[in-house]
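Input (structure):
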């Protein structure tokens, strides 16, 4: 297993293609959610890529405070259907959180979580801070983790 975290400008074209392909496969096709994944935030983000057997198994993007939210945020967290049920989602989030707290010296991290994943994120230290809201036709909640 290999984990790398890179700013957008350091991604090679194959890494960028693979992470965008995975996000599209899961968020658009699997979840049948038509939305614009390319939201002009990727260029500001650090991208975590988890590879297993030389394939992208998971990814997340980490945004500095003042971009999507006032706080540092983690989003576009996804694990390939081929690599599920191996705790890769937890690993991706733990590594992304570790990076966010150290690299940005953040004291808290905000996420916009799909409602069905509330327990998953609670187990990682996040707490709900909003009511349920609709984001692209999917129920979401705002959550916050403190260092």
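Output (sequence):
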């Amino acid at each position: 297993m290999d984990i790398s975290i890179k700013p957008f400008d350091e991604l090679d074209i194959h890494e960028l293609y693979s992470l965008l392909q995975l996000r599209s496969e899961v968020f658009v096709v699997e979840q049948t959610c038509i939305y614009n994944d390319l939201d002009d935030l990727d260029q500001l983000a650090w991208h975590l890529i988890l590879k297993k057997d030389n394939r992208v198994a998971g990814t997340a993007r980490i945004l500095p405070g003042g971009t999507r939210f006032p706080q540092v945020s983690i989003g576009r967290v996804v694990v390939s259907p081929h690599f599920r049920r191996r705790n890769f989602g937890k690993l991706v989030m733990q590594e992304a959180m570790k990076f966010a707290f150290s690299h940005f010296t953040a004291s808290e991290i905000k996420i916009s979580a799909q409602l069905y994943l509330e327990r998953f994120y609670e187990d990682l230290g996040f707490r709900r801070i909003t009511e349920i809201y609709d984001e692209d036709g999917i129920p979401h909640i705002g959550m916050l983790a403190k260092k």
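Notes: The chain has a mean pLDDT of 95. Strands lie at 2-7, 46-52, 55-63, 72-79, 108-114, 127-128, 133-135, 138-146.
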